[in-house]
Amino acid sequence: MKKFKITMASIFILALFLTSCSQEEAEPAIDGSTNKATLSFGATLNDLLNNRSQTKNHFSDVPECSDAAPAYVMVVLSLDGEDMDAVRLEVLSDDLNNDGVMDYFTDYSADLELTPDQYVLEQFVVYDSEDNIIWIAPIDDDNSGEFNGYVINPLPMIIDLGPGVKKYVDVEVLCFDDREVNQYGYLFFDLVPRELKEFCLFANYCTPNGRHYTANYSLELWYIRDGEDDIQLYPRATPSVPFTGNNDSNDYYAEPLCVVIPMPQFGEEADDEYLYYRLTLLDWPGNYGNIEDGAYVEDGYLSWENIEDLLGTNDASIDYLHIFFNCDDTPGGGDCPAGPGDLDGDCVPDNDDVCPGYDDRIDSDDDGTPDGCDMCEGGDDDIDEDANGIPDGCDYAIPGDDCETAFMFGDNTFISLGLTNGRWGWAEEFDEVDGSYNFDLYAGAGRNITSNGYKAGVVTITVSGVDVEVDIDLEPGVTLSETHIYLNDVEPWTTAPGQYGNTDEEPGISGETYNLTYSGDGDFWIVVHAVTCQ
């Protein structure tokens, strides 16, 4: 499959230095300050459809990125609703920030010595020395918000120019194939590169007897922002489903579903889960038949590292994320139904099975021991320098500042709640009257086995009407580096602590008390997560 990439770059425009011909005729300044205004733009995402070719057509107005350097910029401004003549601005370059990265900016132009007034940036196009368009700014006249999740603000852009000022305006432009864009006028620009990537999925559906079928499904995809409203990327105007059919051999087939996704742009680290997908199995008459609405749903989270793993190192192709509906009850699923010779269905014959009853292919810490039999999910089970029987990766008696994720022990594991991304942890449902309740806080308890970790403290939950007080009392020698608390009338829908809504990145070193509220109907769910250090 041909790889589809889109790169966004933002360019800072230096404002026009405006002066009048004489003091007697000078008009009052609209704004004599040097405030910055920001303009961002990106590809239209409306009606992004199901397969690769359909999706790419919606970016057909964006030029392909090239190795050519920007030579000049064509800018169109308007005043009082009337477009002004297009202005050509030559492009210069220098390392303005002394950081080893070349910055581009436009040369001085007398055409942009304008009378102080309120102007609108209508068009902005960058050319190379061969008069080829290499970058372009998208326009959203109707403010439809079609660029949400990809850019912040498209054209047109209002610019207030006052006498004697040079104004900076941020602009984002688009091109294909990961090339940096520099757009300049007498208003000056700097580059901030961003990328769009292609993300593809393929799915299997298994009947109760273990027979595999190519699946038909719908995709929902969100950009998850910590503490902010999530942005739904798909579906847009039409459902996001794969292209399915029946070939000349009367075999049913489905093409991978490929969509365009943004790289992290709100400060997320490469390993932060910033995309959430949800796939719902759909009917396929003639293949596997009809499916009860919502009977089979698979969901999960993706980080930028996950996306890069699928992209690999081959610039001409991309791997898809393989999803299985009802295909295997063992962790991770697989292509091999359980049966004689492979009782745990992990595609490893029983005689060679390292961890019977679990999927040998799942080894989260890459220590050679499958997760199902991993004594220490924090490191190599074979390394035990102090010979105390506890692998070093989970030996909290080793001197040093060992930090681990910790959860309040509860009656419900994440797995029992159907949160199947493999993360350990607990949630507690409250349906009690007012009172005070104590729960142990365990750190490093991989696979929800408390003996894999250590008791880090005690969490006390005090309920009084709509008020819920959470107090964390730590064991001696244990400190907190951050906390996250989920409190809601409905059971948790995510295992990502950053999505819980109550985050404290600087808790007290000897415990912390948090005062929260809920609806007060007598029934709520709570998850207490912390990072504890010894």
Commentary on this structure:
The structure is a single chain. By secondary structure, the protein is mainly beta. It folds into 3 domains: 6-190, no CATH class; 196-325, no CATH class; 403-533, no CATH class. It is built from 2 helices and 30 strands. It has helices spanning 52-57, 304-311, and strands at residues 6-13, 37-38, 72-79, 82-83, 87-94, 103-106, 117-127, 133-136, 157-161, 169-176, 192-206, 212-214, 217-223, 231-234, 244-246, 252-254, 257-262, 273-281, 297-303, 321-325, 403-408, 412-413, 426-430, 435-443, 454-464, 467-474, 479-488, 502-504, 512-517, 524-533. The strands form 5 sheets. Strands 21, 22, 23, 24, 25, 26, 27, 28, 29 and 30 form a 10-stranded antiparallel β-sheet that branches. Strands 1, 2, 10, 11, 12, 17 and 20 form a 7-stranded mixed β-sheet that branches. A hairpin with a 5-residue loop joins β11 and β12. It is globular, with a radius of gyration of 29 Å. Residues 1-59, 178-185, 329-334 and 396-400 have low confidence and may be disordered.
Task: Please give the share of residues in helix.
Answer: under 10%
The radius of gyration over CA amounts to 29 Å
Our count of domains comes out at 3
Shape: globular
Distance N terminus to C terminus? Answer: 49 Å
> How many DSSP E strands?
30
Sheet with the most strands?
10 strands, antiparallel
Low-confidence stretches: 1-59, 178-185, 329-334, 396-400
Write down the overall mean pLDDT. 74
> How many DSSP H or I helices?
2
Give the class from helix and strand content and strand pairing: mainly beta
Give the percentage of residues in beta strands: 35-45%
